Backbone:
């Protein structure tokens, strides 16, 4: 069975399969080696993340699964206000909004939880803020990722996969390359692949 990379998350994860985004880039990198699937659950909800982690992927029952927690990105509060005003007009000021401070609290909790459970984590919240001008460089509406922001997430995910010996370059193809298939005896190439 072909390995699977399953991306669980909110709207940032759901958007990861847009052209040039981090999920689409993973699918391209692992093409013919692993299936990359997205399962978004919407919203910015710690309870959902914990439910998924504890009930869908109990660590003690799944030693062959690599679980990686990715923190939320930082929040460009001014960018969020501008976006909300462009969408909701004057009602935008009445809407509750996320803050970078609270995103940081959530990010630290993700990293600590990963340490407690002995699983990998990627602190995108911290990583992105290392770059000057991160607000506009990495975030399109103060929250969702630009192509540059998607590149940061992709690079960090690939780094963790490589560290876990899951490098796409080292994984076998699930089917032989077409140049290895003899049109008169195609079974031979497939038998070699299975050995």
Residues:
């Amino acid at each position: 069975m072909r390995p699977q990379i399953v991306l669980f998350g909110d709207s940032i994860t759901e958007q990861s399969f847009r052209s040039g985004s981090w999920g689409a880039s993973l699918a391209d990198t692992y093409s013919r080696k692993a299936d990359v699937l997205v399962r978004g659950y919407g919203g910015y909800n710690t309870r959902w993340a914990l439910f998924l982690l504890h009930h869908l992927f109990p660590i003690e029952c799944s030693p062959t699964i690599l679980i990686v927690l990715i923190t939320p990105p930082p929040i460009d509060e001014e960018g969020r206000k501008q976006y909300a005003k462009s969408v909701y007009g004057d009602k935008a000021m009445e809407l509750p909004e996320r803050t970078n401070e609270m995103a940081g609290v959530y990010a630290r909790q993700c990293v600590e939880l990963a340490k407690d459970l002995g699983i990998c984590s990627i602190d995108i919240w911290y990583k992105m803020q290392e770059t000057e001008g991160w607000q506009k460089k990495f975030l399109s509406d103060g929250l969702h990722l630009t192509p540059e922001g998607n590149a940061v997430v992709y690079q960090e995910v690939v780094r963790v996969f490589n560290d876990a010996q899951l490098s796409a370059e080292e994984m076998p193809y699930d089917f032989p390359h077409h140049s290895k298939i003899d049109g008169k005896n195609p079974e031979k190439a497939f038998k070699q692949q299975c050995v």
The radius of gyration is 20 Å. The mean pLDDT is 85. DSSP finds nine helices and four strands in the chain.
